[in-house]
Predict the 3D structure of the following.
Amino acid sequence: MAKIGVVVKSPSLYYYVFKPFRGVELDVGSFVATEIDGVRVISRVVAIRHRNAVVDPRLIAHFDEESTVKEIKETLGIEEALYYTEAKAVVLGARSGRKILKPQKPVKPLSYVYSTTPEELEQFFAPGEEGTYIPIGKIKGTSIPAYIDAERLVTHHCAILASTGAGKSYLAGVIVERLSALDIPIVVIDPHGEYSSMAVPATEEGKHVSEKVRIFVVGKTDVTHLDQAFKKRYGIPRTYTRIGLNPRSIPLRTLEKILDLLYGLTDAQRRILEEGWQSATSYGERQPLTSVEELIKEVLEGGKHAAPPGFAGEMSLRGLEGRLRALFYTSPVFITRYGETYQGEPIKLIDPEMYLTTPSIHIFDISGLDILDQQLFLAVLLDQLYRVSTLRKNLTTLLIIEEAHNYAPAAGTSVAKSYIAKIAREGRKFGLGLCLITQRPTKLDPDVVSQAMTQIFKRMINPHDLRYVATVAEHLDDPRPLRTLDEAEAVVTGISVPVPLMIVVDQRWTQHGGVTPSIRRQV
């Protein structure tokens, strides 16, 4: 291999600085090699800096006459020596069989730096023998597929973090498409109604993906505008099933939080609710669907013994009754009676067991709901998915949550947060994987995102978010290059890849629904 430079500084095990030889051209992202104890180690160039020794004050002090400058430039002939290039290279590792090993010693100064060949890099980045791998792009600057370990990506959770418009949902779509070939259930929480486009193939491979897409519109919300836009853009109608929640399926603590947040709960009302809700929902895991009036009657009957005596108790009962009725009738996510319809469409109950046992792409369009109803729906759905998974009847499933900072915020309240946290902590044991997608990493609960063992970064500009990335991404040596990534590029770190990868994301197989509208001059 050709020698292209020499190491001049080696501050740590993880990176070194070298001076390229004259005439050598390098780009950020290029791969180079060096040797440690005779073992060839691959590195990636992450920064190139142009230095100029003329700024040394001791030299500047002599620039007081033209003749002196001329002598330095022409007679001594050191002008080129004053201007030189340094490159910083991050150590990736050395290939040993099907594994990549990290060196335990730093590169020695004055070690030679070598060029690499396409064959060497292809062997270095080849997937391991064990595991199930999917390609989601190409290693930047090469034609080598970027493989990730699908099993580790799913079961050990992942996060996609980027600024708005950086291509998060496009990348998520690529991952969903590639995972769908493994015949696992995928559940997508879609707060913008953009994932419905996956029902429309864009390539031959996309036909197999689109056949697996199942779209669910949540609640009694008018989605006519989305349906019209979908048909105008793709030339076919959007097909979906409208679904809702059985009021009896709400966990007690979630119901308490919602009622207290919306209307306030007295201590007496809380005691009545706790007693009455347990009595009304003591039917096992599968709750029957009855009318709201019948449910409220059961709650009040079951909890009235916990009410204070006399007029105070009667007021507490009537107050709780009004709060329950207001919640169940005004929130569009609930089915209030058997056979309920909306705009002529039947509303079906959610079926968590089906979502976890059918290898389809289940897309839940919650775009028509306000944020509180979105949180409420997600809390109930995740609670039921978790309960089903503990029975060990499910296939390994990936749950994708867009705009995750709205449902598991670092500060503030969300009734869905505890359920997201539970799956993040315990879901792996039951085959539930979590993928959190957000444009504001600093707004996402740090305990939740810390469980994401694979982190994928796209363009990020906000300095607060970059500082946050530096604290949570132990595999990312310097987050500043994230500022310059384009929409097609991403950095993948964590346990699903052997080394941090800078990739160019593959093309989608299905249509991408998150395209930013362009400004067009009216004619």
About this structure: The chain has a mean pLDDT of 89. Residues 247-330 form one domain.
